[in-house]
Amino acid sequence: MIDVQHWLSALPPGVVYLLVASVIGVESMGVPLPGEIVLVSSALLAATGVVEPEWVASAAAFGAIVGDSVGYAIGRRGGRPLLARLGRRFPKHLGPAQLARAEQSFARHGVWAVFFGRFVALLRILAGPLAGALHVPYRRFLVANAAGGLVWAFGTTYLLYSVGRAAEHWLKDISWAGLVLAVLAGLGSTWWLRRRAHRVTSADGAADMTATEVPSGVETAQVASGGQSAAVAPGVESVRAGNEH
How far is C-alpha 194 from the geometric centre of its chain's CA atoms? Predict the structure, then answer.
């Protein structure tokens, strides 16, 4: 992160804003890029007076909202085959396990997964394409997308900017200590939302485990009758029905 900040400091302010919007925008389309690192580094740079915090936050929010909307359109057109191709190209970030977790969050929590997904790396990348592939109504998606993008961008930028300015004032001769404090503040700025989002995904995983357990009596009856049963993921049918309406 320190190297990124040093590299950004050598660029003109306008280029920094454009880079923030571009990296975050492309990440929101479904391509794994270090959008959060770029935002945090730029916010710390604003604390030194090199760039303006309001422009950093505006660029980040613009990139997040537009990128998610483009990702939504791509997902709506490409559907599940597109997500499968992305998973093969980026198996560590968008593999079948990650896709299943993200899809389950959408099935259970709808557009709230878009809002809280802005604070979690996995859902931040998948929110737009996955919402489009699942045919989430665009108006509802846009509201959650814009709210999450604005809170994430302006909240992260101004908290880091404020802490960085305070650290610079009180620790002028210990610049590394000020940077450490600013980074720690940046991590803490999204702690509550990350904790909430991880609780949601953990609850989804526990529900999946419960859904896969079949009572022994039912299994015995099926074996005795020679019948077969098919499992349907909980919540998916209700989401599909709501989208059809």
Answer: 10
Kindly report the length of the chain. 245
Read off the tokens for 145: 């997308």
pTM, rounded to two decimals: 0.64
Query: To which residue do tokens 């005795």 refer?
Result: 224
What token pair was written down for 212?
Answer: 């896969």
Residue 25 to residue 51: CA distance in whole angstroms: 20
Closest by CA to 86, choosing from 125, 41, 137, is: 125
Label each residue of 126-173 as H, E or C. Answer: HHHHHHHHCCCCHHHHHHHHHHHHHHHHHHHHHHHHHHHHHHHHHCCC
Q: What end-to-end distance do the CA atoms of the chain give, in Å?
A: 46
Sign of the dihedral defined by the CA atoms of residues 238, 239, 242, 243, in that order: negative
- Nearest CA to 195 out of 113, 98, 123, 119 is that of 119
pLDDT tens string 164-206? 777 655 545 444 555 555 556 656 656 666 666 666 556 655 5
Residue ranges of E strands in 84-201: none
Q: How many CB atoms lie within 10 A of CB 229?
A: 9
Cα–Cα distances in angstroms (integers) from residue 158 to residues 4, 35, 54, 64, 138, in the given order: 19, 17, 8, 17, 29
The Cβ of residue 193 has, within 10 Å, a number of other Cβ atoms equal to 18
The residue with tokens 């045919």 is 135
